[in-house]
Amino acid sequence: MEIGWLHFLRQRQVLVFFVLLSMSRVGAELEPYSVAEEMERGSFVANLGKDLGLGLTELSTRGARIISQGNKEYLQLKVQTGDLVINEKLDREELCGPTEPCLLYFQLLMEKPLEIFQAELRVEDINDHSPVFTEREMILKIPEKNSPVGAVFLLESAKDLDVGINALKNYTISPNSYFHIKMRVNPDNRKYPELVLDKALDYEEQSELSFILTAMDGGSPPRSGTATVRVVVVDINDNSPEFEQPFYEVKIPENSLLGSLIVTVSASDLDSGKNGEISYSFSHASEDIRKTFEINQKSGEVILATPMDFETTESYSIIIQATDGGGLFGKSTVRIQVMDVNDNAPEIAVSSITSPVPENLPEAVVMVFSIRDRDSGDNGKMICSIPEDLPFILKSSVENYYTLETEEMLDRESQAEYNITITVTDLGTPRLKTQHNLTVTVLDINDNAPQFAQKLYEVQVLEDTPIGSWIITIFANDLDTGNYGKISYTFLHASEDIRKTFEINPVSGEVHLRSCLDFEVIQFYTIRIQATDGGGLSEECTLLVKVIDINDNPPEVTISSFTKSIPENTERESTRGERSGGEADYLLSREPDPRAVA
């Protein structure tokens, strides 16, 4: 298994873009799935068990579950059947807007053993929206005579939230002898109508015309929306406004202040009076553009109205129309490039946590999590780290997934709990970071045998000590906790004399006298004592009991009479004879004492 590390500031760091495969099948992809939007909750999508070739019970026993991106759980896995079903009704327009295809990414996570499968769900559009015009009535002021046949006039476009075949398809107008409709596509792929003049206008003949503009989508059956177009014929205005440049391009940081000046466009008109007065407006602008920017109708200044977000929209293409007092217009395009700034801190999403962790397991998986940063470039590159002085390591896999594992077997007796801070830092300027705090408890196992305070205990006891008297307390200690740390005391391989004479409390280790002692019978007892913990580990020590004699026996003479002749000149203190006598309370002998018991 390969591991890539960068060491910085005493921290173990893992670069996001250095991808390692830490286990088999991590990052494997499932076949893409698709489902129509607006389906009811519980609708069937696919059977993941069959797709993966797994049995009915395997998904459950392996702890399979679905991880969705974002805060909402749109999908649900029924582990008993393997069915993937809709958990919340899907609105394609709400999820993806105009983006096509509309893809929801999710992962199938199986914990035992750890496997992660990447998958995507394509939300298919249904024709549930009709084209809608922003303005129900459009007014065009067109000068007479000066507008030649074939002249083109811009009309407001309709908006259809559907995409693909269900999106806006074409425009038509009610029959008339003056105009027909031609459809165009602007830089952001929005279809808009142009009104083409088929017959010269004459103010004196007809000063105003009205007709119905219809926008139709490509659904089956098709949906449509209408607006009224009112053409006001005005007297001659033979010069259209002209912009100083046909194309403007600006770059703006995404964190620009509201009210900031983006660009100033300028157009001129050779006409005088009202026909030379110019007003500026957005042409065929999307709702997003109209919400984000404002234009001063008189000065042509484009200002920021609402905050921009590079992660949502990287650029804007705006058609600006300059219209004079007579209805003639010119147009220019402004392209606004949004510059990314490091305004998003990294995010940590925890998939699973295992705590407590057994102390005897090496490379135990403690936590599975993923990270992401919504910024781009260096602002979106991340470093993931934990403190270096901990017995844990981070391992990275595909798609920014990480596992926090034990680097070695833990020892609960050395440390029973670890407080771990996972830090994710991006490489932007300034650097932003996110931290996740985790407390890991170490689960005790029976890896410590009881230990006696001393291997040999010695005690002296008077032979007339009453039965039931306390003799000594034997003590052992076990570093384990719970049942593994509970100790019971017993005599080990004790003779019948020992078991009849002494007893030991299995809980407290107190040794008591069970029957009378007799120095004249047994002077020493050697007792082996065993301490056993709740997990079966044991240790032993030796207790030496020395019986102290008391004067409880009179002297005895071993003969009843004695006669001996002594010469008259025998010297003083000479030995001429022996007598035999004794006392049970004390014995002198050069031989080993037979009155000892082990």
TrEMBL record:
Localization (cell): Membrane
Identify the domain of life: Eukaryota
Q: Which keywords does UniProt give here? A: Calcium, Cell adhesion, Glycoprotein, Membrane, Repeat, Signal, Transmembrane, Transmembrane helix
Alphabetized Gene3D superfamilies for the sequence: Cadherins
What membrane topology is given? Answer: Single-pass membrane protein
Please list the residue ranges that the record marks as compositionally biased, kind Polar residues. 559-568
Q: Name one GO molecular function term.
A: calcium ion binding
PANTHER family linked to this entry: CADHERIN-87A (PTHR24028), PROTOCADHERIN BETA-12 (PTHR24028:SF334)
Q: Which SUPFAM superfamilies match?
A: Cadherin-like
Domain called Cadherin: residue spans: 134-243, 244-348, 349-452, 453-557
Protein name as annotated: Cadherin domain-containing protein
Indicate where this protein is primarily found.
Answer: membrane
- Listed Basic and acidic residues bias regions: 569-598
Q: Name one GO cellular component term.
A: plasma membrane
Which stretch is the leader sequence? 1-28
What organism is the protein native to?
Neovison vison (American mink)
Which terms under GO biological process does the entry name? homophilic cell adhesion via plasma membrane adhesion molecules
Q: Where is this region: Disordered?
A: 559-598
